[in-house]
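Continuing from the previous page...

OK, I double-checked the sequence for LIMD2 protein against my notes and this is the correct one:
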Amino acid sequence: MFQAAGAASPAPAHEAKNSSGGSTVQRSKSFSLKAQVKEICTACQKTVYPMERLVADKSVFHSSCFCCKHCHTKLSLGSYAALHGEFYCKPHFQQLFKSKGNYDEGFGRKQHKELWVHKEVESGTKSA
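Thanks. Re-ran it with the corrected sequence; updated C-alpha cells here:
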C-alpha cells in the first residue's frame, strides 16, 4: 500500500517490464510521437524533409538546392568550399578567391594590407 521514504519510485510509462524477470527495457529516446520541427531550406525557403536533408556549415538544404553560387553546379559535401556563408564548387572557389591571394578582395572589403600600412605610418610618426 504505502512505500517507505527511501523506496524506488514506480517505473515511468515508457519503460516496459520484461516477462522473463524483473529487469526493465527502455525504449529509444530518439523516437517521439511529438510533431517534428519543420526545417526550412536555406536556398529556396521551403520545407526540408528528412530524406532530402543536407547540412553544410550549419545550414540546411535540399540535396538539389545545394549548388555553387557562381555556376549553379550541384554540390556534395565533399565537393564544396564555403566563404562568408556562400557555397562554391572547388574550381570556382580557387578561380575567384585563391588566385588573388586575398579572400577579402573578392568581396569588395577593405584589404588587410591597408590596415597594416596605416599602422606603420602611425608608428613611424610617433618614433621620429
